[in-house]
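Troubleshooting log. The previous structure file for this entry was overwritten by mistake, so regenerating from the original sequence record. Sequence copied from the archived sheet and checked twice against the printout by T.R.
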Amino acid sequence: MIKKRPAAPREVAAFTLFSIREEGAWSDGALHHYISRAGLDSRDAALASRLAFGVLQNRTLCEFYLKKFSSVRLSRLLPRVRDCLDLGVYQLTMLDRIPAHAAVS
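Regenerated output below.
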């Protein structure tokens, strides 16, 4: 598990995706671990859950968009960079209440 304490829902979702990819962690266990470490309230915890599970459920679609619009081959990107890009693409394409500037920040 990542030792740093996450500070925001997007960081919780990112840390969850990193742990799943790098350590083979179970998605719900990693998510609950980082939510509790961050001390998120219920609204922020719901956003973190939606982001993490949304990326996991729609990873193929996110990678389709990345392949279509990226000039860099996905295989050349670091795994954590891909996870962050998947998070941004998911927020831009699937969630309508998150402004674009927040999704890519």
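The chain has a mean pLDDT of 93. Archived copy saved in two places this time.
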